[in-house]
Amino acid sequence: MRKFLLVWRKVFTASIQSRLEYRMDVLQRILGACLVQLSALSFLWIVIHQSGDINGWPVGQVLLLMGLVGMGQGLSELFFDSVWQLPMNIVRGNLDRLLIYPVRTLPFLMISSPEIHSFGNFGLGAAYTV
């Protein structure tokens, strides 16, 4: 288990470092994720401004729920986003390459391509929660 965690940490760190190499791309992705979250917040503000509450849910509780969803989405995109690429790896024939690596295939696939915009989703979700 210790060897697996060591390999996992090295692969995850290398993946993040390769994504952080292009600073403007990182900035655009994080800013884009924040803009998506803020557009959802503006839609929510319009609805609550018109109705006062949403079926008995006050503004604070709805913001808490939005924050928890944003944080969950950010964490899932950071650690598990590559699971969606599994069917394409099978179709393209890339899964064979992953199967011969001396690590567990599914965890390696999950961490091999983290999404940088997940930092924006998680950060804004944490801000909503607070």
List the defining traits of the structure above.
single chain, 130 residues, mainly alpha
Describe what is shown at a glance.
This protein is mainly alpha-helical.
Question: What can you tell me about this protein's structure?
Answer:
With 130 residues, the protein is mainly alpha-helical. It has helices at 2-20, 23-51, 59-79, 86-92, 95-99, 105-111, 118-129. The longest helix is centred in the N-terminal third of the chain and has 29 residues, at 23-51. It is 77% helix and 0% strand. α2 runs parallel beside α7 (118-129). The mean pLDDT is 84. It has 7 helices and no strands.
Query: What order do the SSEs take from the amino end to the carboxyl end, as H and E?
Result: HHHHHHH
Largest sheet: none
Strand content: under 5%
Rg measurement, Å: 18 Å
- Counting DSSP E segments of at least 2 residues, the number of strands comes to 0
- Number of discrete helical segments: 7
Which residues form runs of ≥5 with pLDDT under 50? none
Global morphology: elongated
**Class by alpha and beta content:** mainly alpha
Average the pLDDT over all residues and give the rounded result.
Answer: 84
| Oligomeric state as shown | single chain
**What is the CA-CA span between the terminal residues?**
35 Å
> What is the percent of helical residues?
over 70%
